[in-house]
Every structure is written in structure tokens, then in C-alpha cells.
Design brief:
elongated; 53% helix; 4 helices; single chain; mainly alpha
């Protein structure tokens, strides 16, 4: 059961890590698009947009590292402490990303504020990035992308908080397994050694000798001239002599 418990923790933690990484890739991809469009039109890029790009990129790298960490080194104290610390750092990062994309709470119809400019979402020409060739970003699409970033950022805030707690459980489970190890109480397999609760108070009585385990069982003695038992009877008396030896 202990092995299954440890395996469940690792698998569940790995699934959460994969979701975190995919969410971070989504944020990174959207903001890479925003920055590419702004750079292409020679529009000054706000530092907060650069910050979102950097934090999401770091989250992608950490997510890939964390998947391998959980699969191969999950539960080790040093790496567990490092993972908890980084998880809490990325909780803060995604809180900041959520704040930077707070305009994602607005409706995407009518006048909108987006990283690619402000204007009427139904009229692309209202964007400051509209050029002479009639090409410009779709503010409605830009608004929807910002909404997606906000939703994913909020999701990752909770996921990183959960994985921080899960990492603590992995470390505790690993220490428990290491402290007890294999033994007679767990059939010499990995585990904490705790038996089923309905068997914990039962005492096991071992017999010293097969003859002592059977009360009232007698066998004749062929080594001496006496016949009788070689063990005490059920009443605890000495063996009774039933005859004399004839082989003088």
C-alpha cells in the first residue's frame, strides 16, 4: 500500500506539472505574438509585457525540469525544498501576470484595451498599429487572447500552490519509507511497516518446541531403560517411570 501511495503521489504531481507547463507555453506563445507585432510596427514595448514574456519563459523551463524532478528525484529533501521554494516563487509570478492582464476581464465588444492598442474591437482601423496598406491587428482577437492569458495565469496560481503542498507530502512519504524500510512487519518489502488496524493489537505466541506445543502427547523412550514421555505432562509433573531396564 505504501508503494501504491508513493506512486500515486508521483503520478498526480507529474500530471499537474504537465498542465502547468502547457499553460506556461500558452502564455509564452501569446505574448511572443504580441511582442512580435509591436516590434514589427516599431511601437515601444512596455516593460510589463517584457516581464510577462520573461516569467512565462522561465515557467516553461522550470515545468520541464520539474517533470523530470518528480519522476526521478521526487521526495529527496534537498530537491523537495528547492521545488517548494520555486513553486511559491511562480505563484507570485503568475499573480503578477494576472495583474498585468487585468484588462482581460472586460468585454471584447465595443471599446477595448489590449496589449496591441486601444480602440473599437469591430473596427481594425481604430488601432494605432493600423498602417497605410490597410493592415492592422484585430483588436477583438487581441482582447480574446488577453482573456486567455488571464484565465491561464489564475489557473497556474492555484496549480503551483497545489504542487508546493504535494511536494511536501512527497518528501514526508520518502522520509517515512527510508526510516522504516523493509522488515518482518511488511513482509520484507518497502513500506512503513504498519499493519491492518484490526490486527495491530493481536499478540503472536511462538512455541519453543514442537513437543511443548502439544499438551499430553507422550512418546516412548528408546534411549534409556525407562518408558514414558520426555516432556512434562499437562499437569506439570515429572515423567512417570513405568518399568526397569532389562538389558543389564
Amino acid at each position: 500500500m505504501a508503494i501504491l501511495g508513493g506512486a500515486f503521489l508521483r503520478i498526480f504531481q507529474t500530471i499537474l506539472r504537465i498542465i502547468q507547463t502547457l499553460a506556461s507555453i500558452l502564455v509564452l506563445g501569446i505574448y511572443s505574438y504580441f511582442l512580435a507585432v509591436l516590434s514589427h510596427h516599431d511601437i515601444p514595448i512596455s516593460n510589463r509585457y517584457r516581464a510577462v514574456e520573461g516569467m512565462s519563459g522561465a515557467a516553461v523551463l522550470y515545468g520541464l525540469f520539474a517533470v523530470l524532478l518528480t519522476l526521478f528525484l521526487g521526495g529527496f529533501t534537498f530537491f523537495g525544498f528547492l521545488a517548494v521554494l520555486l513553486d511559491l516563487c511562480f505563484v507570485g509570478c503568475y499573480i503578477a501576470i494576472s495583474w498585468f492582464n487585468r484588462d482581460g476581464t472586460q468585454s471584447c465588444s465595443g471599446f477595448v484595451k489590449t496589449p496591441l492598442g486601444d480602440g473599437d474591437s469591430s473596427n481594425g482601423k481604430s488601432s494605432p498599429l493600423y498602417n497605410k496598406n490597410g493592415l492592422g491587428p484585430n483588436l477583438h482577437k487581441s482582447c480574446q487572447l488577453e482573456k486567455a492569458v488571464l484565465a491561464v495565469a489564475i489557473l497556474n496560481c492555484f496549480l503551483f500552490a497545489i504542487t508546493a503542498g504535494m511536494q511536501v507530502l512527497l518528501v514526508r512519504h520518502h522520509k517515512k519509507e527510508k526510516r522504516f524500510g523493509p522488515g518482518p512487519s511488511n513482509n520484507y518489502t518497502a513500506g512503513s511497516g504498519r499493519g491492518r488496524f484490526w490486527r495491530r493489537n493481536k499478540k503472536v505466541h511462538n512455541t519453543r518446541d514442537a513437543e511443548m506445543a502439544t499438551s499430553g502427547a507422550y512418546r516412548p523412550s528408546h534411549e534409556t531403560g525407562f518408558t514414558g514421555t520426555t516432556v512434562n505432562g499437562s499437569n506439570g509433573y515429572e515423567p512417570k517411570q513405568t518399568g526397569y531396564a532389562t538389558n543389564y
